[in-house]
Design brief:
heterodimer, A: 410 residues, mainly alpha, 17 helices, globular, B: 401 residues, alpha+beta, Cytochrome-c3 Hydrogenase, chain B, three-stranded antiparallel β-sheet, 10 strands
Chain lengths: 410, 401
């Protein structure tokens, strides 16, 4: 986009405009996504629990219930406990939201539809998602409440531990693909559904479930929602929060849920590629016509969002079914089950990829013999430099550092 | 953390950890009302949990000294508000014992029927709320869905859904409405498969078992020492149920009813082939057993209700007429204990010959059951505190009165 604008605008202005457009688009996705997913959660839980869920605001299905609640939260008084560390208390929710928001920057919604085409997108997303814990810890520490402190300590222990198996799980598709570029990983899984990395070999299939467990834990969803365990810690780290600040925590939780589900969709479920190669049959994907390509991407976007929503819905289903684990059991699950299984899956995938690089089902795996995917280096770097000031140094450092590593290993 | 000592060259490095006092309640989501627990915690480990009560005290017993026994019935409803019928029954029996009143056969079966129905409702709440304590929300609503049907039935009987004042001195305030027994049977028929769902969601759920099995083990001796009763006592393996072992005036109500006391004997619960097996990790007297006893008692109560329906419909004659509101009481005192869903509920009445008793007192089961909290919670994790307190299934209205 920046290149296109450069034809009409000075370079700096072109990049700035492109960055703004991307940022606003992602913000819309995050805000709208949160609205929809909170509504969905209520409907799903209502369905599970033999209730109706919201039915009044916005017609029969209560579409606008979340919006109405949001308005109510905005009008609430901004309460701050006297014992709170004022500054940290105020910024904590935004730290959380920023972390999950920034992860969207590297997330491709369809083939090439990505705000910043990072060659280390997988690494970037996992790293940035891990930062969300800072907001929670700040909130717990700054609230000046013992319950909040308990919640924050639990969150710190849990999220830091689960980063390890999560990282191992994420490495498996990266290993098969040979790149950390999410767009490239998505392109490799084009075609039939058996090209998806989930069906690449039995180990990836196992690893996916471990990934999903760890992802649920790292975004603090039940049965791992210890940081805000209602029956134990009142509301955990956000006990003292109300109004807008509380809703920002909520947004952060839901948007990181979407990010981990979307990451699972790209890494294991073929991203924007549907189970059937419909775009190939229609001749859209291979067409030179940009409009055809656009339509193919639009179909891909629907696919991708469908998979992400399915992942989130699955998390909701789990939440409304299972009791909560205890903190020691959560840690034991991580150390005794998730990490070894992930490591086993990783080793297995290494061997399998060495022996059968084509995967489980072998029919025309054309990408195996495809030449190495060319990284779009200048675009990635320049776009990163124009993105929000807070993120660009990180993005720069990451892409620079790991681009080298990547080429080295190749 | 570095702390400076007197000698500036020596810097001490240590991590100082202190114990922390945390107030759990009275406004806490999982303390079942207004219980306040003061926890002394070392990190996540609870070294001491002291229950504080009295936040729901309404001077019910003092009020009882200014009202006639029948007028006090609505106050008994509000003691264990989840089992109002059983409370009415306990007080009515105590007064009847003082007055030496004999009831017709039909009233007896009506009372068994109603009391056991309320036991089902109460245990359903106990089960659902226990799920809530462990962080699962759905079983709570599934339980309330079924309880709602019982409340609908009760509403038809007496017009109230929570505070019934239905069973009264001398019988009940009204007979069962026509067609009610069929509705009741239909309800029991549809409840039976739902119980299996509860077992699937909670009793046999792997996370549930891990959260409850081996947690808060209450030995039989300790349970007896503390005066625990009801499912808490039977969960520890003590074979004691007032419906079988109680006073004659109470047990004769259950004469001819076939039921077995739900308690583990030689590693087996009665009729346990119908129920999910006891997990290997469960220890007798832990939270899981207390919960399990309650679940089995629901089945037992369903069985008793069916028997009561049969016998009630076979009886002809009177369902019992309530005594006059200002009936004179004979001089003397009477104490009567009944098996309520939460345990042994005792009522004591002293009369000097007037229509208003000189003293009216209640002995609540939840009070004694709660007193074991201090012992059980020592050394457990914070997350276990709701699990333990929830498994005792206390009702604060009954403790504070």
């Amino acid at each position: 986009m920046a290149e296109y604008l450069q034809q009409y605008l000075p370079q700096s202005l072109a990049y700035l405009t492109a960055a703004l457009v991307h940022a606003v688009l992602i913000l819309v996705v995050v805000a709208l996504g949160t609205l929809i997913f909170i509504w969905l959660e209520r409907k799903v839980s209502g369905r599970i629990q033999d209730r109706l869920g919201p039915t009044r605001v916005g017609g029969k299905f209560g579409w606008l219930q979340t919006l109405a609640d949001g308005l109510k939260l905005i009008t609430k008084e901004d309460l701050r406990p006297a014992s709170a560390d004022s500054m940290l208390f105020l910024i904590a929710p935004y730290v959380s939201l920023c972390a999950s928001y920034v992860a969207y920057i590297a997330l491709p919604f369809a083939d090439g539809w990505v705000a910043i085409h990072l060659n280390v997108a997988v690494f970037f997303i996992v790293a940035v998602l891990g930062l969300e814990v800072f907001g929670v810890m700040l909130a717990g520490y700054a609230s000046g409440s013992k319950w909040s402190l308990f919640g924050a300590m639990r969150e710190a222990a849990q999220v830091v531990s689960y980063e390890v198996p999560l990282g191992i799980c994420v490495v498996v598709p990266v290993l098969i693909a040979g790149t950390m570029d999410l767009v490239a990983i998505g392109q490799m899984q084009a075609g039939w559904f058996f090209n998806w990395f989930l069906f690449h070999d039995p180990f990836t299939f196992i690893v996916f479930w471990v990934y999903f467990t760890c992802a649920t834990a790292s975004v603090n969803r039940a049965p791992f929602d210890l940081a805000e365990a209602e029956s134990e810690l009142v509301a955990g780290f956000h006990t003292e929060y109300s109004g807008v600040r509380w809703s920002i925590f909520f947004m952060a939780e839901y948007s990181s849920m979407v990010v981990v589900s979307a990451l699972a969709a790209i890494l294991f479920f073929g991203g924007w590629n549907g189970p059937l190669p419909i775009t190939h049959w229609l001749g859209l994907a291979d067409s030179a016509n940009p409009l055809a390509h656009y339509v193919a991407n639009l179909l891909g976007l629907i696919n991708f969002l469908g998979k992400a929503i399915a992942g989130v819905t699955f998390m909701m289903w789990v939440r409304w079914t299972l009791p909560r684990l205890r903190i020691d059991q959560v840690m034991a699950t991580c150390l005794k089950y998730c990490t070894p299984i992930a490591a086993f899956g990783f080793a297995g995938a290494v061997i399998w990829t060495f022996l059968f690089p084509g995967g489980l089902v072998i029919p025309n795996k054309d990408w195996v013999v495809q030449e190495e995917y060319q990284l779009d280096e200048p675009q990635a770097q320049s776009a990163a430099s124009t993105s929000a000031a807070s993120t660009s140094p990180l993005a720069h450092a990451d892409s620079g550092l790991h681009a080298e590593e990547h080429h080295g290993t190749d | 953390m570095a702390t400076q000592t007197d000698d500036p060259r020596i810097i001490e490095f240590d991590v100082r950890t202190d114990e922390m006092l945390v107030n759990m309640g009275p406004q806490h989501p999982s303390t079942h009302g207004v219980l306040r627990l003061v926890l002394r915690t070392d990190g996540e480990i609870v070294s001491e949990a002291t229950p504080h009560i009295g936040y729901l005290h309404r001077c019910a017993e003092k009020i009882g000294e200014n009202l006639t026994p029948r007028q006090w019935i609505p106050y008994t409803d509000r003691m264990d508000y989840l089992a109002g019928m059983n409370m009415n029954l306990g007080w009515s029996l105590a007064v009847e014992k003082l007055m030496n009143l004999e009831l017709p056969e039909k009233a007896r079966h009506l009372r068994v029927l109603i009391a056991e129905m309320n036991r089902i409702a109460s245990h359903l709440v106990g089960m659902g709320a226990y799920g809530l304590d462990l962080g699962t929300f759905s079983p709570f609503l599934y339980a309330f869905r079924e309880r709602e049907k019982i409340l609908d039935l009760f509403e038809e009987v007496c017009g109230a859904r929570l505070t019934y004042s239905y069973i009264t001195v001398g019988g009940a305030t009204a007979d069962l409405p026509p067609g009610w027994l069929q509705k009741c049977e239909a309800f029991l028929d549809q409840l039976r498969p739902v119980i299996d769902e509860y077992h699937a969601l909670l009793t046999t759920n792997a996370i549930f078992v891990r959260r409850t099995a081996g947690i808060g083990v209450l030995s039989a001796e300790k349970a007896i020492d503390y005066g625990c009763t009801g499912p808490v006592l039977r969960g520890s393996g003590v074979d004691y149920d007032l419906r079988r072992d109680g006073e004659q005036r109470y047990t004769e109500m259950y004469d001819g009813y076939a039921f077995e006391v739900i308690v583990e004997r030689d590693g087996h619960y009665p009729k346990d082939h119908d129920y999910p097996p006891v997990p290997k990790t469960a220890v007798l007297g832990d939270c899981w057993h207390r919960f399990y006893v309650r679940m089995l008692e629901v089945m037992q109560a369903m069985d008793l209700v069916r028997q009561a329906i049969d016998r009630y419909s076979m009886c002809s004659g009177d369902w019992g007429t309530p005594v006059k509101l200002t009936e004179k009481l004979p001089k003397g005192d009477a104490y009567m204990e009944t098996e309520c869903p939460r345990g042994q509920m005792g009522f004591y009445i002293v009369s000097n010959g007037g229509s208003i008793p000189l003293r009216a007192r209640a002995r609540s089961s939840s009070f004694c059951n709660l007193s074991v909290t201090y012992d059980l919670c020592r050394g457990c994790l914070i997350a276990d505190v709701p699990a333990i307190v929830g498994s005792l299934d206390i009702v604060m209205g009954e403790i504070d009165r």
